Amino acid sequence: MLDDFFTRALLAGVGLAVIVGPLGCLIIWRQMAFFGDTLAHAALLGIALAVMADLSPMIGVPVVTVASCVALLVAKNSQRLSSDTILAILAHSTLACGLILITISGSRAVNVNGLLFGDILAVSKTDLMVIYGGGALIMGIIFWQWRRLLAAIVSPEIAEAEGLSPQRAEWLFMILIAFVVSISLKLVGVLLVTALMIIPAAAARRFGGSPELMAAMASVFGVIGSVGGLYGSAYFDTPSGPSIILASALILVIVMILPRPVFKLMIRRGAK
Amino acid sequence: MGHPLISMQQAGVKRDHRWAVRGLNFTIERGEIVTIVGPNGAGKSTTAKLAIGAITPDEGAVVRHNGLRVGYVPQKLFIDPALPLQVSRLMQLTTTVDHAACARALDAVGIEHLASAYVQDLSGGEFQRALLARAILRKPDLLVLDEPVQGVDFASEVMLYDLIKTIRDTSGCGVLMISHDLHIVMADTDTVLCLNGHICCSGSPDTVVTNPEYMRLFGGHSAGQLAVYQHDHDHIHLPDGTVQHADGSISDHCHPASETPHA
């Protein structure tokens, strides 16, 4: 079954969608959509460095993305610049650096187009193992630390006073995003990683209810978007990564257009 | 009396090479209500953060009672509209609580009917009550409130103060409150600390007057809940950090006499 490239792509898309659901919600609640983007850009530098050092991108990317998190936190605390500005500087200087290094290295192994837009149809069995193994670990950490992650968003002061360090939550959040970006890069590429995370979460907002329900619904919408996008790309012969994002965006639009009573009914049913 | 919940011994905090607050010397006992007043930038919030253990002092010491449970009511809270958070879920922000206890706490602050409301839909007073309910759910030894009545209309302010007193009376917890107003403190306050980089003056608010002007301003019925705190500043802080005393002399610290509570 796993010998079929389309089946592998479907499994990869579904696995990834489930993981990014809750993380996408955390990104939205923290208002840090641009942060995911920055890490995705930095990831390109990670790939370039890994190629030059003859290492796996699965090592290079997490190292560079986590280093970017550190740089962000240090700059935020020491410079009189808004996080927004720092993120833009980080994103584009790492991207520029990555593109230059890739050109200098003259490596044919790096397909820049593939890096920017991803190639989910080229997912290997090893990639699947990384997605499901890493995904299980990430989900485990999210479940285990959910209260801390949420408390830090609602009120860092309360969290601090009552013994749930918000600094630790911030670090945890950043590292989780860094790893998810590393995992999803091959599938949807640098330019589309953030969209994969936040569009399903934005659609899930219409369901209200509770933070947990919204996180679960984000995963559900993500799965529908991935499956729909992949079948769409096969049917219309369109690029797979962009098709997944477009499918998610279509779901978002439909969800936004649907009248409110539909959701209220669904929530009430869900609550009972 | 036993051990105090918190005892500050000449505690000070440095921020960017300057003392945010210094020479803090006070205790909070079980059942005691301590109110901190002072101008902006006086170090009120820093003092509260020292008390709850969020920051450690750069000099002196803060001794907290073993296993001290703190309930914290923050100044104001912005919650992103994208976060679907019902009051009942807010109650469980830092600890799991059972449904009945949650309902009792909401009932105690008078918003039981709002359990399934979204926090973004609450009025300022309702939100503050919800935060208070959340804090008392933890059965804290020490309740810390950072400007709990800021942005709350007058009727709600009186009711919140009443609630805080009731909570203190029934649970026996200590209360540390930061007041948004330099001159008005809760009448049941046991100790007022006037802060301006250090403790300028402190004492019980029996210096409080039921000032007729004040009564008229706030409609008379406030007399039971609010009190005017009169300051007796006997020294002036000069721009260079030195202190000019009442007799005209200048030193680099305020008069020791002004730092001991008036009996």
Give a concise summary.
Chain A has 272 residues and is an all-alpha fold. Chain A is built from twelve helices and no strands. Chain A has a single domain, classed as ABC transporter involved in vitamin B12 uptake, BtuC.
How would you describe this protein?
The complex is a heterodimer of chains A (about 270) and B (about 260). Chain A has about 270 residues and is mainly alpha-helical. Chain A has 12 helices and no strands. The radius of gyration of chain A is 19 Å and the shape is globular. Among the domains of chain B are: about 1-70 and about 175-230, P-loop containing nucleotide triphosphate hydrolases (Rossmann fold, 3-Layer(aba) Sandwich), CATH 3.40.50.300; about 230-265, no CATH class. Chain B has 6 helices and 14 strands. In chain B, strand 9 (about 190-195) and strand 10 form a beta hairpin. The interface between A and B is medium-sized, with 27 and 27 residues.
CATH topology of the domain at 1-69 and 174-231 in chain B: Rossmann fold
Radius of gyration of chain A equals 19 Å
What is the global morphology of chain B? Answer: elongated
Number of helices of chain A: 12
The tally of beta strands of chain B, per DSSP, is 14
The major pleated sheet of chain A works out as: none
Second-tier CATH architecture of the domain at 1-69 and 174-231 in chain B: 3-Layer(aba) Sandwich
The Cα radius of gyration of chain B reads 19 Å
Principal-axis shape of chain A: globular
